[in-house]
Amino acid sequence: MPSLKATVMKDFFEELHKHDLYNENDHNKTEHTYQLGTVEFAFFSVDDAHKTRGRKQKILWLNESNEFEEEDFKQLALRTTWRIFLDYNPSDEYHWIYDKVLTRQSVAVVKSTYRDNPFLDRETIAEIEQYQTLDENYWRIYGLGQRGVNTAAIYPNWQLCDEIPEGTDRFYGLDFGYNKPTCLVDIGERDKNHYADELIYESHLTNSMLIDRMNELGISKERPIYADAAEPQRIEEIRQAGYNIIAADKDVKKGIDTVKSGAFYITKRSANGQKEARSYMWRTKDGKTLDEPVKANDHFMDATRYGIHSHGRQATIIGFV
Predict the structure, then answer these.
(1) End-to-end Cα separation, the chain, in angstroms
(2) Which tens digit of pLDDT belongs to each residue from 95-122?
(3) Can you list the domains of the chain with their CATH numbers?
(4) Mean pLDDT of the region 172-195
């Protein structure tokens, strides 16, 4: 739901306001519905399989549908009376959508790329077009809209978990952003296994807004927060607010190796973290895999790496002394 509110719902209500169609009396903020004339729009997240049971609709839209389980789709499709829309970036090499949906005779496939979007700003276009020389697979997916070949996944064996287990060593990782998301991750570590839970993933956060959000969430002021060392002023401001924040070790390759030294788990509610994990890949060029990750859609990944690798180094240094 946090991801849904920050994307689809945000765009929907911005459009209503833009066209002077919004009426607060028609907005049920508890149930996440909006009544527009005779049509009810209902927004819901599928973070629990039971949410797909008993819900009926005439039109169903699955946003980022490649992140849904096949069983979720089946249950929702059974309860949809007219039409279903699925949107997704073809970042998965293998997926149930390819095998179980696109093979149906009743399905129409519409492939569009960034070139078909008249509303994209120049910065986004430049971000996409850099992949022509930066990474072949990313260009194939996000530039050409073609099915990805995910032979270079950095964390191919990450797993889902419900919660960070009790009894783990706890700390945080923090990746700063503004136009791009700021990401704060709660991390647990036990027996070299690592557990990551997304706490903040939001763009346009000033440092004061970030501190307010951390206060609201009750972020521990005793546990260490390993933050992007490229932002010393932001680190100092958060330290002045009473948090135990430390500049992270940003060695990317060694950090990835530290994360991969044991099993890596992401909580089921960490929607953005899961999305990043699926597309977090080594750069490829001329058919060769390079020893550096693609620098895109990596805010959760960076924050998690900062925490896990830097905390391990802290423990090593303290143990040595």
Answers:
(1) 45
(2) 899 989 998 999 999 999 999 999 899 9
(3) 2-120 (no CATH), 121-149 (no CATH), 159-320 (3.30.420.280)
(4) 95
